[in-house]
Amino acid sequence: MKKVKITVLKTTLDKELAAEYGAEGLTACLMMKEGQVFYADYAKPDGFCDEAWKAVYQYAFALAHGAAGGLFYYGDWIRKPGVAICSCNDGLRPVIFKLEATDEESEMDYVPVR
Fold first, then answer.
1. Residue 78, pLDDT score
2. Nearest of 67, 64, 41 to residue 53 by alpha carbon
3. What is the pLDDT of residues 15-26, one digit of tens each?
4. Most buried pick, 59, 61, 95, 110, via CB within 10 A?
């Protein structure tokens, strides 16, 4: 299993939807910052949003397990092998991520609970 580099590309706010449905004073995500980089494999990286991880995990898992040689969705989504562009599932202020396969081997750094 390889590590996957996750880069925060953009934090957004849909002003029209936020005006209609959002809480007063809603802003773009305050947890994630553009340019932040995380490395993942089988587990959510420290400091990474729980909800965002739920949204991007399947792509990180696929890339960590060798999807780097192919393209997602029959090649009609991303043109570069080993890359996925994903977002969290916040409909008012989604955060956009770039996930990239790396050649860095992953090491289990925790003891599984039984």
1. 77
2. 41
3. 999 999 999 999
4. 95
